[in-house]
Structure formats: structure tokens, C-alpha cells
Amino acid sequence: xxxxxxxxxxxxxxxxxxxxxxxxxxxxxxxxxxxxxxxxxxxxxxxxxxxxxxxxxxxxxxxxxxxxxxxxxxxxxxxxxxxxxxxxxxxxxxxxxxxxxxxx
Length: 104
Hints:
Layout: H1 5-28, E1 30-35, E2 40-45, E3 50-55, H2 65-95
Antiparallel strand pairs: 1-2, 2-3
């Protein structure tokens, strides 16, 4: 039984191209989360980049800035978790469910 290096290199290049496609798809995906009953909305992409933050000024009083900071953190972390889970699901199809360090 001999090992076919040429076949292995072809497969590695195929997986690399598939990873590039998945990364582009993730970049184009958008996840939105809110907190405080919609007072804070956050959008992130599938590469865990925060793309937008909206604050409903009518729902936040002057004395509520500390609470506002907490709501922003909750919304960002929720949106990032959604994004990470989607990335993990997409990459699992390429890796056959195998956990590869550095991918997610």
C-alpha cells in the first residue's frame, strides 16, 4: 500500500479553495442581536466584526448610561455567538466535524 502524495496535495488545494469560499460567505453573512427590549441593536458579520450599533434614544434616559453599556455588551456578545456558531457549522461540513485548531 503506497501513499499518493499527489492526490493528497490535490485534496489539500481543494479544501483550501473551499475554505476561501466559506470565509467569503461568512464575511457576507450578517447577524443581529438586541438587548433592553430593543433599546440596543448590534450587527456583526460571520467573521466576528461589529458592523453596526443602533441605540434607541427614546428608550434610554440620561441616568441610564451604565445600564446602556451593559446592554451594548450583551447585544454584541449575543450577535458574535450567533456568528461563531454559524462559522462552526459551515466549517464542520468541510472538516467532517473534525475540530481543527485555529479554525473555530
